[in-house]
Amino acid sequence: MTEIDDIPDMTALRAEIDALDRQLIALLARRHALIDRAGRIKAAENLPARIGWRVEQVVANARHNAAAAGLEPDLIETIWRQLVEAAIAQEDRQLKGRQDDRHAD
User: Fold this and answer.
1) Is 45 helix (H, G, I), strand (E, B) or coil?
2) Which end of the chain is more exposed for a tag (fewer CB within 10 A), N or C?
3) 82-87 long-range CB contacts below 8 Å, 24 or more apart?
4) Handedness of CA 49, 42, 37, 62 (dihedral sign)
């Protein structure tokens, strides 16, 4: 990774941002796969998609990590709440699909 102060111009800076965006997308894709696994585990253990205390724990962790990294915790909380809601919806679709499969007999 290039040191930020070593980036010579906007073209190079944009290339760095684009590369970082690709890395972020790859990380989000891995998170998506982990959420799929969570949905399968929750189905097997008869757990709901939304577990309130865990939602708040994830958001608190994100706020803490944001502050430690010098980012605005309120902004990161907003982003993370959207990310968590999307994950819950993903799990919920998976759990409902499993119920539909059981009732198809």
Assistant:
1) helix
2) C
3) 83/31, 84/55, 84/58, 84/59, 87/31, 87/35, 87/38
4) positive
pLDDT tens-digit series, residues 65-99 = 999 999 999 999 999 999 999 999 999 999 998 66
- pTM, two decimals, is 0.84
Q: Please name the amino acid found at residue 5.
A: D
Nearest CA-CA partner of 16 in 6, 30, 31: 6
- The encoded tokens of residue 35 equal 């959420």
> If you ran DSSP here, which 8-state letter would residue 104 be given?
T
H or E segment at 76? helix 73-103
**Who's near 13: CB < 8 A, 6+ residues apart?**
7
Structure tokens at 4: 């930020």
Neighbours of 35 (CB within 10 A): 20
Tokens of 10: 């906007």
